[in-house]
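Subject: design request, 294 residues
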């Protein structure tokens, strides 16, 4: 009853390793769908992926929300488990996600242990409009949340489709697209359950994926900034205190004090992101598209 869906971009070697681990899970997923935005692989990677018992969908352009929407549309099972392409899953990952669904649950956010992290106990950080905005996904107790990480997230497929899937206005690094999706689930009356027993280790590969958009600290591109401002325009009231706090935190910090030559680039990136977010907000949310896959 579970489809594992993996959006991937320029990560052929680690993708094949992750797929081998997923195929050994007990119980396994009913289906694995790889939504691949990589233009081409070396012949040995192409051959390996072609030989695996997976559905391999190729897309012409990289977009995390679009790839996830394609997976939602193409999945054959009622629960879709989204995962990163560079993870080590716990043996019972599929079983724990399936067990956690039910009783009004629209989505289950699994535990994600980043390199060097261990499971810990945290008190809730805050409530109100900023609830769970920086939720620690190495927390040790189940609870209802209003944020998710797409690298270990299962959703009720029909419920996710009913709210339009993921907003494809989030582009580039697509920062906060997961939080936007979570807030829309809650607004529609659904529950999101954090389940630490559905755990995995995230390898946080230094290349490919969103890392293909470069280091957010050293670029004038709005790729890493637009999403947060766009999220705030859609969900945070009042908007300007949030925007000012974000701007200040990204142009006045210890790293930039040690590397002041990057300050003009950070200011440009923040301003560009703010204006682009305003343009997207005025245009309106971009729901799942029905573009053809190959």
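Subject: RE: design request

Done. Sequence follows.
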């Amino acid at each position: 009853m579970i489809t594992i869906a993996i959006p991937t971009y320029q990560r052929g070697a680690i993708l094949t390793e992750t797929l081998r681990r997923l195929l050994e899970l007990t119980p396994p997923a009913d289906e694995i769908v790889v939504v691949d935005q990589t233009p081409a692989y070396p012949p040995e990677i192409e051959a390996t992926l072609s030989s695996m018992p997976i559905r391999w969908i190729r897309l012409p352009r990289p977009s995390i929300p679009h790839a996830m929407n394609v997976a939602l549309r193409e999945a054959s099972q009622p629960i879709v488990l989204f995962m990163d392409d560079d993870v080590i899953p716990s043996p019972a990952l599929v079983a724990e996600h399936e067990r956690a669904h039910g009783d009004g649950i629209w989505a289950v956010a699994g535990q994600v242990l980043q390199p060097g992290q261990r499971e810990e106990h945290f008190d809730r950080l805050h409530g109100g409009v900023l609830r769970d905005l920086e939720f620690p996904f190495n927390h040790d107790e189940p609870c209802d949340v209003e944020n998710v990480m797409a690298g270990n997230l299962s959703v009720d497929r029909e419920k996710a489709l009913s709210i339009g899937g993921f907003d494809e206005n989030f582009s580039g690094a697509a920062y906060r697209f997961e939080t936007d999706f979570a807030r829309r689930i809650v607004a529609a009356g659904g529950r999101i359950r954090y389940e630490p027993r559905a755990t995995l280790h995230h390898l946080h590969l230094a290349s490919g994926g969103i890392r293909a958009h470069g280091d957010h600290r050293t670029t004038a591109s709005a790729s890493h900034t637009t999403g947060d401002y766009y999220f705030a325009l859609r969900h945070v009231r009042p908007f300007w205190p949030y925007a000012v706090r974000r701007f200040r935190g990204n142009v006045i910090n210890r790293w930039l004090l040690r590397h002041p030559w990057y300050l003009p680039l950070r200011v440009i990136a923040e301003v560009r992101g703010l204006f682009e977010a305003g343009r997207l907000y005025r245009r309106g949310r971009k729901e799942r598209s029905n573009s053809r896959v190959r």
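Strands lie at 2-8, 31-36, 55-58, 79-83, 87-89, 105-113, 143-144, 152-156, 191-202.
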